[in-house]
Write a structure and sequence with these properties.
Largest sheet: none
Radius of gyration: 23 Å
Helix content: over 70%
Number of helices: 6
Length: 145
Amino acid sequence: MPARREPPPAVPAPGGWGAHVPAVLAGLALLLALQLAGTALVVLLGLPVPGAVVGLVALVVLAARSPALRRRAEPGATPLLQHLQLLFVPPGVGAVTQLDRLAADALPLTVAVVGSFALGLVVAGVLLQALLRRRDLRAARGAAS
């Protein structure tokens, strides 16, 4: 009979989360808490944006300011990112079940997709040109001094 493997002990997280909470579970709880906070803000303020998007923006802002928060969220986010393709199944099924509606609105959808792509491309190009000009000016000032 093979030896029975014991599960690895939970690593105590610095900062008081305790050893009894696995890092993945703590990371998922943090991500869900930020999504809940985003949804609450959307409901309270009547914002025309999904709560998950507001929560994601909050995560990005908070993680940029606090590397510790980023380290807390990473164990929960890594498995989600590794299996990201599975998260596209529900929207794909929804699109297939609504093919008749998509066909009826094909022209406005096509205009929106092509227009937003073109606008994004133009904005990216203008931004790149401005950043390259700025880099060249800094390099010229550095060479002159």
